[in-house]
Task: structure prediction
Amino acid sequence: MFKKLLIANRGEIACRVIKTAKRMGIPTVAVYSDADAQALHVKMADEAVHIGPPPAAESYIVIDKIMQAIRDTGADAVHPGYGFLSENRMFAEALEAEGVAFVGPPASAIESMGDKITSKKIAQEAGVSTVPGHMGLIEDAEEAIKISGQIGYPVMLKASAGGGGKGMRIAWNESEVAEGFQASKNEAASSFGDDRMFIEKFVTQPRHIEIQVLADKHGNAIYLGERECSIQRRNQKVIEEAPSPFLDEATRKAMGEEAVALAQAVGYSSAGTVEFIVDGDRNFYFLEMNTRLQVEHPVTELITGVDLVEQMIRVAAGETLPMAQKDVTLTGWAIESRLYAEDPYRNFLPSIGRLTRYRPPVEVAAGPMLTNGKWLEDGPQGDTAVRNDTGVYEGGEISMYYDPMIAKLCSWGNDRDTALEAMRVALDGFEVEGIGHNLPFLSAVMDHPKFASGNMTTAFIAEEYPDGFDGVTLPDAALMRVAAAAAAMYRVAEIRRSRVSGRMDNHERRVGKNWVVSAQGQRFDVKIDADPEGSTVKIGDAALRITSDWTPGDQLARVMVDGDPLVLKVGKVPAGFRLRTRGADLCVNIRSPRQAELADLMPEKLPPDTSKMLLCPMPGLVVKVDVNEGDEVQEGQALCTVEAMKMENILRAEKKGVVTKINAGAGDSLAVDDVIMEFE
Result:
């Protein structure tokens, strides 16, 4: 086995690899840029080596710097994680020349499968069904328009070296091809150092389902079931689950066998993923092969009990797979929610800053995990399990230089409904403050009827949230539960306030039974009967029993309402609470009847008018400004491009107008809500 493992990556995946390496007794080396000097993966590793400035192009993807770190530390193996150099053939070859093991596939397999155009040709030759498209490289937008017309709209513009949704655009007509082609080339060049593009037919109403394969250097290869990855936004996966609620056993077997055949056709070894597009009739088409560990690998680990990182390390060390295909069983159901540093209320634009609060839910044992062919004894401690893979900590910074994903929250259950409910509770209990994040959106998806039914496609987010995400409106029954819990909590806070010492004489504060709760535009007249064990809250004809150990000042409340759990994130507002649960963000006011009567007479404060301004929706760098002062612009016209977290975002005019003032130019760094331009 290896004497020292260097992880050529950062963040969550570096921490994930370090955990397995430590369990295997292998010392680890972290690498870090200036921006990551205090990062969690640096703290977890046995050694750490500085490799350069924050931009990845000057640090994490500079092969010479990684190679020097290997020499300086004496590492004899390297795990690349995902992204960065994980699918870089030249990196794998450099390691081989240095006599250092690459914890991944052979360079020849990376070259064959890492390039989407080459991989499609190989798949066709191997008899794998592929999506129609243009297999050659495209030089410019004019050629792209011609080819797209021949294939037929809609088409997908793709970077040949792409991944993670970068360098990809869906185009429905010629103008979208012309505009998207150059933007995709730019993203590909900045993210991968390779701006080659190709085009394929975009399959409508598709499901994105992938097969996990595992192969050793002795000709053995297996598949470990599938992952459903259809919940995507801008071609970036958001929620994954295993197995897929759509596949039957026959389709699973057919897809798995094709995936294994493709891997063996290129002499593959290590963990890899073969991605397919599956239509409504369960016809499947090869999309691409990722010659690395996938972000969503934990859901496969949870239903198979196989530690994929460990098996990658053992394969790289020349060991034989400890299992055959007949030994692979899928147990229960697993779901993964990706926690992103992005603001769902601002069309999911990136958010950066300091994590003033970061408290993941308590992890529950999610084994058993297969360790060198033997099952561990610490299996699931009940019907559900919770796992959180993360690369951040409270007080840490979310940088503008890297991918916005900060954690992967996973739940496991005996069946899909159980895993779903475990995820709902875990999301409600995940505390994140200081940055914009997508926890409310993830909660909303978990409760969406279409997702709960398993009947979704890759168009789910675009179809169900066409105007973006503006929060969740709780149904009446759920809102009543929240109102009852809030009233009981407020009564507890009032009792504490009534006992404050140093009060003025003859100014005793009395806590009554009758209250008025206002939330989500509704009013509830409440009566509370308290006892030492809890409270009975009467709302109309309903009487809800409330018990909790919440005390004033706690930012998380776990409440039982008539025996069912309710998890609330709690913030203080005048005369009440800010409560967040199941994707809803509520200002809940609790007042005495007289206070409520007076509050109804107060005028509503209106927000400032920004309708004649273009505000920067996220921290970023202005790439270009497309208009000049005095120009008349039309609705939907591109005004400027802002780059953040390796993605270019085109800001467009919301309505017709005339530009009167431009406050920013190319190269300017902007904060959220900085005024870019003004209109008359």
User: Anything to note?
Assistant: Residues 367-381 have pLDDT under 50 and may be disordered. The two ends are 69 Å apart (CA to CA).
